Amino acid sequence: MTAELDLMDIQGNLLRAYGRFSFPMARYFFLRVYDAKRGRKFVGDVTRCVTTAANWGSGPGEIEKPTVTTNIAFTYAGLKALELPRASLAGFPPEFATGMKSRQDILGDDGPSAPAHWDKAWHGEPVHIFISINAQQQQYLDLQYELLAKMVEHCDGAVLMVHGHRSGDGTDLAYQDAKIIVEDGKPSSKEHFGYTDGIGDAVFEGLPVPPGRVLGRGKQTKDGWLPLATGEFILGHLDEAREYPAAPAPFLLSRNGSFMVYRKLHQNVGSFNAYLDSEGSRYPGGKELLAAKFMGRWRDNGAPLAHAPDAVAKQGWDTRFGAATESEQDAMLSNFTFDDDQSGAKCPFSAHMRRINPRASLEHVRGAFDTPGALSDRRRILRRGLPYGEVNDQRRDDGNHGIIIMMMGASISRQFEFVQQQWINYGNDFRAGNDKEIILGNHRVTPPSKAVIQVNPTGDGVPYFLRNIPRLV
To answer: Residue 1: its pLDDT value, please?
Structure first.
């Protein structure tokens, strides 16, 4: 890796998915600023609590691993409320300045996903500041939250917490909690549909990770896997076009920062289970293979369909996985391509994983580019977050459970919005017409959503058609 990053000037959640580092619980809360001067002082006070990306350890240039982390972000309205100079405000892109509600048509946030159905916190005045806390234990989370809440109280109304986050018992809270799912008394990496999550986060230049972690997580080139350009995710650095991403002035305002998208995704667990049971009883490969076709990975351990396209191949993969070292297991989960699956027979074109990161599969003519994945490298996103809530009845959609997901990158429009609009809710780039991505697509009753589970075009099998797909998220 060639880039030198100032880790003390970068927030820790940009370089680390805290859940992978034994921080199984989080609390997110939002603030409004009513006095710019007092608000700026509050931000200055919070800044002293912010967790940087400095390496954890006892060696040179390292710091002791914290028990709790704290990070902060601002909306455009928040920067305006803090009286950031107009010349700087004018440099922000329109998708950041106008906010998510105004982009609902682009994002497909319609029907039950429309802003009118969002938590009460998002109604009325815009929020200004986002603060996230991740902790190793509940006691550390509570103590840090109490500390920050007292800092808000000392602002005497100049800064206020935004209430209205839906809780499990129906009450509205001043914060949103999230935590890993526990299975059989042990922490897991699952989400509420039962899939293993958090496997394929992007690796870019300067990221302090072992070299082997770039396999399957960087960019595909003729020389193998290489880290993505830093500027795809962090402002002030060169991106894949060898340009500096658009950012507001002055340079020090934006350098080493990023744009973040916060989404609270409710999961319709009852609809998912009922649909999977119904279609799985008819699908030739059975229920669990169909579930893997929805995602592109098997549910139990994340085995990619690219390596384990059926139950027999999965059994052999599991045996090798069980005998592998931790680093070898990591490579088995991520180091694959769709080069030999141009028909979608292994991983369908509407599977979640293929839509979110097509790798080089959009290069339909082999050898067309020096960097085969160039069409998708500009769309990569860093993903953070954790599940929230508990599922008390697997047959029902109601309740309060899902995923808090935060997506970070140098361009909201080129990365998050493009993927959401063009790859999740529209399938033309994948030769799938109007078929939506199965898991996250904004499926409608009219016209009914469908998707095709492809088969080997030279074999005897016939494609399986999923019909009347319900909105799962």
So the answer is: 40
Query: What is d(CA 139, CA 144) in angstroms, rounded to the nearest whole number?
Result: 9
Q: Which pLDDT tens digit goes with each residue over 280-321?
A: 999 999 999 999 999 999 999 999 999 999 999 999 999 999
pLDDT value, residue 102 = 96
Q: Under 8 Å CB-to-CB from 431, ≥6 apart: which residues?
A: 349
Query: Which residue positions in the chain have pLDDT lower than 70?
Result: 1-3, 364-369
Phi and psi for 229 in degrees, rounded to 5?
-65, 140
**8 Å CB contact between 33 and 39:** yes
pLDDT tens column, 45-68: 999 999 999 999 998 889 999 999
Average pLDDT taken over every residue of the chain: 95
pLDDT value of residue 3? 61
Enumerate residues 6+ apart whose C-beta is below 8 A from 348: 293, 296, 354, 438, 451, 452, 453, 454
Residues 470 and 300: their CA atoms lie apart, in Å, by 23
Structure tokens at 314: 């999965």
Contacts of 219 (CB under 8 A, 6+ apart): 225, 226, 227, 228, 240, 371, 373, 377
Task: Return the pLDDT at 382.
Answer: 97
User: What is the residue whose two structure tokens read 């920067």?
Assistant: 79
Please give the angle made by the CA atoms of 222, 228 and 233, to the nearest 5 degrees. Answer: 160
Q: 437: Cβ–Cβ under 8 A, 6 or more apart, which residues?
A: 350, 351, 352, 355, 356, 423, 424, 425, 427
